[in-house]
Amino acid sequence: HRFAFGTCITNTYMTNNSYKNFILNHYEWAVCENETKWTTNEPSQDSETYTTADNIYQWANSNGIKFRGHCLFWEQLNQVQSWVQGLTYATYPTPSNLLTEVDERIDSAVNHYKNKFHNWDVDNEMLPTGTGNEFYNRLGEGGRVHMFQRAKSIDPNCGMFMNEYSGNSFGGYDSGPYVARATSLISM
Fold it and tell me: In angstroms, how far is CA 19 from the centroid of its own chain?
């Protein structure tokens, strides 16, 4: 296809041949549903695992499906591990425990999938849509820019993306906030 048709793959159904055959017959690209998210890869501090995501990636890659990483960070507080929520923080570039862990996450995940993933969703759902969003505001807008720059410096051939769902998907599409956030990141 001229347009990249993709889907989300969940480990829950990877033993189901009908599920896998449907993916093989209809899609050229894929992401993991939850298996490459920080909450899954490091539920406890300094205890990282990529085994399940690796299995999905290897299956997809062996079948010619290109892969996208989803996601390095997720702004919604209910998607941030409690141990991360409790870290001290400061506006970037001031050192803080949160910045240290953000850098460790980027270094670990992006290096792990370097030259494997074609793209990464770096910071997921950055638009303010309700209580608990914009967790990484704790680092300031410069901290978000740092996330993209650090990831890109590790894997320069990988595309780095903003990803949005709830802020633009329900109740009508308004590109204004998304464009404003992208413009802000680019201008820094």
Answer: 24
Per-residue model confidence as pLDDT tens digits over 108-163: 999 999 999 999 999 998 877 666 678 898 999 999 999 999 999 999 999 999 98
> 51 is written with which tokens?
């085994």
Count other Cβ atoms within 10 Å, centred on residue 158. Answer: 20
Express the helix, strand and coil content of the chain in percent, nearest 5 each: 45, 15, 35
What does the alpha-carbon distance between residue 38 and residue 104 come to, in Å, rounded to a whole number? Answer: 11
Q: What is the 3-state secondary structure (H, E, C) of 84-140?
A: HHCCCCCCCCCCCHHHHHHHHHHHHHHHHCCCCCCEEEEEECCCCCCCCCCHHHHHH
What backbone torsions phi and psi does residue 84 show, to the nearest 5 degrees? -75, -40
| CA dihedral for 124, 109, 100, 187, sign (positive or negative) | negative
Could you tell me which residues come within 8 angstroms of residue 50 by beta carbon, excluding any fewer than 6 positions away? 36, 41, 109, 112
Distance of alpha carbon 184 from alpha carbon 168, whole angstroms: 18
Closest listed residue to residue 123, CA positions, set 85, 160, 183, 73: 73
pLDDT in tens, 149-168: 999 999 999 999 998 876 55
Q: What are phi and psi of 8, to 5 degrees?
A: -100, 130
